[in-house]
């Protein structure tokens, strides 16, 4: 009985985290490429460069 309960709890944790990660991914992807990036503040991508430095 305890093993069954433990397996159900472990399965719920795995599926719960999977759902959380998937929802977070979808929300970030809707923001766009650079807006969802964790390096948004320090990124040196073309879109974040000042106008006089862009090619």
What does this structure look like?
The chain is mainly alpha-helical. The chain has one domain. The protein is 55% helix and 0% strand. It contains 1 helix and no strands. The protein is rod-shaped and about 70 Å long. The model has no long low-confidence stretch (mean pLDDT 80). Keywords: Membrane, Transmembrane, Transmembrane helix. This is FeoB-associated Cys-rich membrane protein. Pfam families: FeoB_associated.
Summarize the entry for a quick read.
This is FeoB-associated Cys-rich membrane protein. With 55 residues, this protein is mostly helical.
List the helices and strands and how they pair.
Blueprint: H1 2-31
Keywords: Membrane, Transmembrane, Transmembrane helix
Pfam families: FeoB_associated
Transmembrane segments: 6-23
Characteristic terms for this protein:
55 residues, mainly alpha, 55% helix, transmembrane helix, membrane, FeoB-associated Cys-rich membrane protein
Number of H- or I-type helical stretches: 1
Overall 3D shape:
rod-shaped
User: Helices and strands, in N-to-C order?
Assistant: H
How helical, in percent, are the residues?
40-55%
Radius of gyration: 20 Å
Distance between the termini: 67 Å
Q: Output mean pLDDT.
A: 80
Structural class: mainly alpha
């Amino acid at each position: 009985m305890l093993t069954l309960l433990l397996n159900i709890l472990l399965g719920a944790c795995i599926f719960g985290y999977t759902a959380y990660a998937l929802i977070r991914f979808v929300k970030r992807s809707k923001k766009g490429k650079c807006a969802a990036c964790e390096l948004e503040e320090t990124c040196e991508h073309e879109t974040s460069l000042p106008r006089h430095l862009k090619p």
